[in-house]
Specification:
Structural class: alpha/beta
Radius of gyration: 18 Å
Oligomer: single chain
Number of helices: 11
Shape: globular
CATH class of the domain at 8-113 and 184-256: Alpha Beta
Order of helices and strands: EHEHEHEHEHHEEHHEHEHH
Strand content: 15-25%
Helix content: 25-40%
Distance between the termini: 36 Å
CATH architecture of the domain at 8-113 and 184-256: 3-Layer(aba) Sandwich
């Protein structure tokens, strides 16, 4: 958590990442907003009775529980931000018309079409990852060398929280047991584009490459139903690879859509004139 005023920017990380995935971006975001980045179950420092129940219902329920605990029945303006698997979760949360104060939706590098197409390769990708590390530093090094992250500063902050120590093997390994959650993968992404498009709040899709839009999103984009930004020179984890640019995009989105108690002013950014209903 960071920041003391402005709207709440509630961030959900992707599968295998953790809440600290947003740490570097938060240092800039907190000047204008309140940042919350929770660890999803089975990830980071979270503790649950079933770490491999990553069903969409359970994940949405966890988000609602955290929001309720933090804000009770009168939550402030909330912008939901989700990366990859977390992007699917925020879209499902928004589709449940909750929280009532939802003011914006930010989805980071996940599109139904390409996500569904990649599922058949997912177990192989997971099994090909390096599994054991003698120290957290080795895992940080591997994350950058393998290309999963491109920013060593962010990796140093986030990667240690994605590990756990394996006493039997006397080494570190991945905390998230994603390979045991395959039964839930399809439900994360099925119908995602339509759910995203049908959400009535302002929406932005941040992509690391242009070839990702499926048919529904392409049509929706042509109709102006959401804003899309292609972020150059970054890998899948946009918020980690280019945290300053990511934070600026979010702050501009919040300012442009006047989200928060009075909206927020960003010097040099002209606001569009209010259109009459």
């Amino acid at each position: 958590m960071a920041g003391t005023e402005g709207p709440v920017v509630f961030c959900l990380h992707g599968g295998g990442y953790c809440g600290l995935s947003f740490a570097l971006a938060a240092s800039k975001l907190k000047e204008k907003a309140r940042i919350v980045a929770m660890d999803l179950r089975g990830h980071g420092k979270s503790a649950t009775q079933n770490d491999v129940d990553l069903s969409i219902e359970t994940l949405c329920g966890d988000v609602f529980s955290v929001l309720k605990t933090m804000y009770g029945d009168a939550p402030p303006a909330i912008v939901l931000v989700g990366h990859s698997m977390g992007g699917a979760v925020v879209v499902h949360v928004a589709a449940k018309k909750s929280p009532p104060s939802l003011a914006g939706l930010v989805v980071v590098d996940v599109v139904e079409g390409s996500a569904m197409a990649s599922l058949i390769h997912m177990q192989k990708i997971l099994s090909n990852r390096m599994q054991h590390f003698s120290t957290p530093e080795k895992a940080i090094e591997w994350s950058v060398k393998s290309g999963s992250l491109r920013n060593i500063d962010s990796a140093r902050v986030s990667i240690p929280n994605t590990l756990k120590y394996d006493e039997s093997k006397k080494c570190y390994t991945h905390r998230a047991r994603l390979e045991e959650t395959e039964q839930y993968w399809r439900e994360w992404y099925e119908g995602l584009s339509e759910k995203f498009l049908s959400s009535p709040v302002p929406k932005i899709l941040l992509l690391a490459g242009t070839d990702r839009l499926d048919r529904a999103l392409t049509i929706g984009q042509m109709q102006g139903k959401f804003q899309m930004v292609v972020v150059r020179h970054t890998g899948h984890a946009i918020q980690e690879d280019v945290p300053d640019e990511f934070a600026t995009l979010l702050l501009n989105f919040i300012s442009h859509n006047r989200i928060g108690p009075h909206g927020i002013e960003i010097p040099g950014l002209r606001r569009p004139p209010q259109s009459k209903p």
